[in-house]
């Protein structure tokens, strides 16, 4: 049996995901393949590196630090989440990402990015064992979480990429194509959530006017997202996938400076995972 894990993004709604995956790690759940989008990638990579608690810890410590995420960073660097701090200083100096474990763990880990020239999703497999602060995989993960309008496109090997959530927000179909027999999907919105059309498209045009395909992708994102949610519900009802999602809106913004709020959403994730442990074991035949 090949077991898969799908992790939706959603900025600090990702604390819900962190609570779930920490409980799963604590209870010995292993997956053969995982895919994360945006925050689902930046936080979810800790599953492969076997570091429960890490994402919650550093977010609580640095959520009020302007070096981490701030308007100051946006105005001075073009990125609301400061690239140098988030993808260099933090994982390689302050709260170490265990790259040795990450690359020795046989679990396949993918992150989703959007190619801003084509507007289409790209699925990058993180298997380039480069441990320096500017390693290839950390740049793909950065791109996956680089929100349009408030982030610069990330250049990798001649391509330009932004947030994977624009083109494939909850990549269940991608995971099914990897040959997974059983799949856990972690969503960060409620079951009946319906996304509305993209706001501030005029700002997107100012920032990305040279990339009409990306603008089309952003303009139509809500249709893609709502279609994916419907597909997931159908697969869930058919017993083909297992889904954990919040029962109520998480009500947390993309940048949260109150560590208690981060802890609150994290605990909601832990509670949801704990409630579903027995059912998950039965589904995965553990």
From TrEMBL:
Ranges spanned by the short sequence motif GXSXG, renumbered to the chain: 36-40
InterPro entries, per database record: Acyl_Trfase/lysoPLipase, DUF6363, NTE, PNPLA_dom, YjjU-like
Molecular function GO terms recorded: hydrolase activity
GO biological process: lipid catabolic process
Domain PNPLA: 5-176
Highest rank taxon of the organism: Bacteria
Range of residues in the leader sequence: none
Keywords: Hydrolase, Lipid degradation, Lipid metabolism
Active site per database record: 38 (nucleophile), 163 (proton acceptor)
SUPFAM superfamilies noted in UniProt: FabD/lysophospholipase-like
UniProt xrefs under Pfam families: DUF6363 (PF19890), Patatin (PF01734)
Motif (DGA/G): 163-165
Name of this protein: Patatin family protein
Species, as recorded: Pseudobutyrivibrio ruminis
């Amino acid at each position: 049996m090949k077991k898969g894990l799908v992790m939706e993004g959603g900025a600090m709604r990702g604390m819900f995901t962190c609570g779930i995956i920490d409980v799963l790690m604590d209870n010995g759940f292993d997956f053969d393949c995982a895919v994360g989008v945006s925050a689902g990638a930046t936080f979810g990579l800790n599953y492969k590196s076997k570091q429960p608690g890490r994402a919650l810890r550093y977010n609580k410590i640095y959520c009020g630090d302007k070096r981490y995420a701030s308007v100051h960073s946006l105005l001075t660097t073009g990125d609301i989440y400061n690239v140098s701090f988030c993808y260099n200083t933090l994982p390689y100096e302050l709260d170490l990402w265990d790259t040795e474990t990450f690359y020795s763990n046989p679990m396949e880990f993918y992150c989703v990015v959007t190619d801003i020239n084509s507007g289409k999703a790209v699925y990058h497999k993180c298997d380039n064992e480069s441990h320096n602060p500017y390693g290839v995989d950390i740049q793909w993960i950065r791109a996956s979480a680089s929100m349009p309008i408030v982030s610069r496109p990330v250049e990798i090997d001649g391509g330009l990429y932004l947030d994977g959530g624009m083109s494939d927000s909850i990549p269940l179909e991608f995971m099914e194509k990897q040959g997974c027999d059983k799949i856990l999907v972690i969503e960060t919105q409620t079951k009946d959530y319906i996304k509305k059309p993209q706001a501030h498209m005029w700002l997107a045009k100012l920032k990305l006017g040279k990339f009409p395909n990306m603008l089309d992708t952003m303009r139509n994102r809500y249709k893609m997202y709502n279609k994916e949610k419907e597909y997931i519900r159908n697969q869930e009802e058919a017993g083909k996938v297992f889904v954990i999602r919040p029962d109520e809106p998480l009500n947390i913004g993309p940048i949260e400076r109150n560590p208690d709020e981060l802890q609150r959403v994290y605990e909601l994730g832990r509670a949801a995972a704990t409630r579903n442990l027995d059912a998950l074991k039965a589904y995965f035949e553990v």
